Every structure is written in C-alpha cells, then in structure tokens.
Amino acid sequence: MKLTPYKSDGTVSLFPFGLLLIWLVPFAPALAETRIDTKLEMTNRLGGETLYLAPGDYGSVTLEGFMFDEPITIVSESAGQATIESLTISGSTNLIFEGIHFESPSNGTSASSIVSIKDSDNIQINHSEINGPVDDVYDGHVGVRVTDSSNVKIEGNFIHDVKRAGIFENTDGLIVAENTADYLGDDNYKFIAVNDVLIENNIGARHVFPSEGAHLDFIQFQGRDSSDIVIRGNLLLPENKTNIQGIFLDDAHYTNVLIEQNIIVTGMIRGISLSSGTNVVARDNTVLDIDGAGSKATKVMVVGERYGNIQGSYLQDAGVGDNLTLQQADPSRALHYDDVFENATVGLGMDVLDLMPIPDSLAQKYGAYERLLELLGL
Predict the structure, then answer these.
(1) DSSP states of 53-87 as a string?
(2) What is the predicted pLDDT for the residue at 46?
(3) Predicted confidence (pLDDT) at residue 365 exceeds the cutoff of 60
(4) Which residues, 6 or more positions from 219, have their beta carbon under 8 angstroms from its beta carbon?
(5) Spatial separation of the C-alpha atoms in residues 294 and 289, rounded to whole Å
(6) Is residue 229's pLDDT more than 90?
(7) Which helix (H) or strand (E) holds 20?
(8) Best label site of 107, 216, 257, 364, fewest CB within 10 Å?
(9) Average pLDDT value for residue range 162-187
C-alpha cells in the first residue's frame, strides 16, 4: 500500500513519521498484524504536524506510547471518508483526531468501546462520527471511553447506534462539548471521579432503546467524588421515551459545581438533581415535565443555591420567586406553560421551535433564555 496519500503541511520531511504512517495505512490483511516495535524511537521528539488520511478503511488502530512535545493532528483528507473500526490510545500524549468516521462492524459488549483513551494526556477526538452497526441493536459498545487521563477533549462529534455515548472516569481537565448523541440503549454520558470538567452544548439522544429495567440518564455523575464541574447549555428533547432523568449527580460528593442554561424535557421528577455537594449553584435552567408520563413534575433539586430556573410542577406549586414554577394542568389558570412558551405541552417529539418564548413573558427573566435564543438562531 503506497504511503503517498499522506501529506504533511509543515516543513519536516514525511520520513520521520514513517512509523506512525505505517500504523495508519488503510487496512489490508498483510498489514493487519504488523507490529510497530520501534515506535518508542519517536517519543518526545516530534510534533506540530498534520497528517492527512486518504479515504479508506484503516481497520483497528492501537497507539501505545506515542508521546510528542507538540500535538500531532490526524485528519481525514475528505471529511468522514477515512474510517477506523476502533481506536485505542494508551500511554500517549498530544494526539488530535479530526473528521474521522469511527465505525465498528460489530455491536460489541458493554465492556467494549469504539474509541478508548487510557493513561494519556492532551488527546482530542473532534468533529467525527462514532457508531456501531446501524441494525437496531443497542446493547453493546460505549462510543467513547476515557479513563485515567488528563486534558482530554471530545468535541463536535455525532455518536449513535451504541449503548452509551460516553463514559469518563478518573480524568482531570475534561471537555465534552457540542456533541450530538442519538439511537442509544442507555445513558448518554456517565462521569465518575472527574475534576476540572466542562460539559457544554451537547444535544441528548432523541431515540433511546433501553433494556427492561434500565435506569436512564442524560448526564449522570456517580460512584466517586468529582469537583470543579461546569454543566452548561445542554439540551434534551426526547422523541420516544419519557423516563430519562436529566442531569443527575448522586452516590458521591460534588464540589464547586455550576449548572446553568440547560434545557431538559422529561417525564421524570429529577430534571436537575444533586444530592450531596459543596459550593453548588444551579441557575437559569429550564426543566419541563411531559404531561401524563411518570411524574407530574420536573424540578431543579440540588443541595446548594437554586435561582433563575424554570421548572414544571403541580397546579398548587405554581409561583414566581427565586425560581419560576409553571403548571400545565389548567390553561385557564395563571403560570400555565402556554403563558411562557409557544407549544411546550406537545410532549414527546417536541423540538426547539415548540419552546419559542412568548414575547414579553417571564421566559425573558427566568430559565435558559440565552441558550434558547442561540438554538433558535435569534
């Protein structure tokens, strides 16, 4: 297989990158079992280059011990046309993948993942598509799994046809932003023992196909303590399931947490929930209940400060104060959903246009107004 499809946009010859390039040439049986025993010769020597992948199937890629002083960017020459069946990165630094299609030919198991990052630093997976087979089976792979790492960014990806979009554990300096998930079998994102975390502007799965008895969450923290967390601007508008909890932090202690400008529609009471924390603020979020599904209320319930939020609850709870509590039981009574939003009682299948704010209403003073205008393009 020729190496000529690969190009460098820097001034360094391609020759020093030969080891990495051989590892990433399009998959062929003769190369599938090739070992790169001399890859450590590159450690801490090179970086700052962009490597372009020609269209093709690159098989399963394992990068272990690749350590660069400056980032190496590996990008599909034509967006999405370079396909990697699975990517495992361990003990490595300064690797960026852009515009790749990570597509597993098998469904895998709950212990497997399509993209795995472990014991690594300064790794990014950006503007890529990550999925298992599109075959209506959702009980296998995790899309992205990050463990025991630091300074990891997962941004702008479309993750679908897997069990969970992402699991992140024991990682510091984590960004999960601008991703869209869909066609899942369980939680969207799960976080365990993470610190210095930004979870921003992610769009949750509209289609979820859980196993019987599954406990579904959009964004879940659990297991061990986490700190310095910002959860901002995330959107959940389900289309086929009402029993998805929104932002749920439990079973640990959480320190320095800001939750703001999120929009959650669900049939569960826990729109935003945090059970144990220090210096916790939940402000300017919109959490609305789907009528006739599960709970009759969806609330912001945190141990800490709560203000500026819009939440849906029972008729007798409706009121204006630090938070705005709406009701959808009686359109003739005050503070009905229709007083604030264009069509927020539509239930499953709601889109952002249904949440168009009523002019001069309380939607301008409470809730995720800024994020809503951004999503509406206003």
Answers:
(1) EPSEE--EEEEES-EEEEEEEEEESSTTTEEESEE
(2) 67
(3) yes
(4) 188, 189, 191, 199, 202, 231, 234, 246, 247, 248
(5) 9
(6) yes
(7) helix 18-24
(8) 364
(9) 98
Closest by CA position to 37, among listed 19, 21, 13: 19
Summarised one tens digit per residue, pLDDT across range 85-110 is: 999 999 999 999 999 999 999 999 98
Contact between residue 224 and residue 248 where contact means Cβ atoms under 8 Å apart: no
Delimit the domains of the chain by residue range.
Answer: 1-214
Could you give the count of Cα atoms lying within 13 Å of 288 in the half-sphere of its Cβ? 34
pLDDT confidence of residue 92? 95
Nearest to 249 by CA among 232, 266, 225, 233: 225
Q: What value does the mean pLDDT take over residues 309-321?
A: 95
248 CB-near residues (< 8 Å, 6+ apart) = 217, 218, 219, 220, 221, 270, 273
The DSSP symbol for 337 reads G
Q: Higher confidence at residue 35 or residue 176?
A: 176
- Both tokens of 201, joined, read 């502007």
Looking at residue 282, its amino acid is: A
Taking the alpha carbons at both ends of the chain, their separation in whole angstroms is: 50
205 neighbors 239 (Cβ within 8 angstroms): no
Distances (CA, A) of 130 to 56, 98, 125, 289: 16, 12, 10, 31
What is the second-level CATH architecture of the domain 1-214?
A: 3 Solenoid (2.160)
Q: Which residues contact 341 (CB under 8 A, 6 or more apart)?
A: 354, 355, 356, 357, 358, 363
**pLDDT value of residue 141:** 95
9-13 contact pairs (CB < 8 A, 24+):
9/49, 9/50, 10/48, 10/49, 10/50, 12/46, 12/49
Q: What is the pTM of this model?
A: 0.90
286 contacts 262 by C-beta, under 8 angstroms: yes
What pLDDT is recorded for position 31? 33
Residue 287 in 3-state DSSP? strand
What average pLDDT does the chain have? 88
Mean pLDDT of 174-193: 98
Helices (H) and strands (E) in the chain, counts: 3, 31
Q: Is the pLDDT of residue 35 over 50?
A: no
Compute the C-alpha angle 36/85/67, nearest 5°. Answer: 40
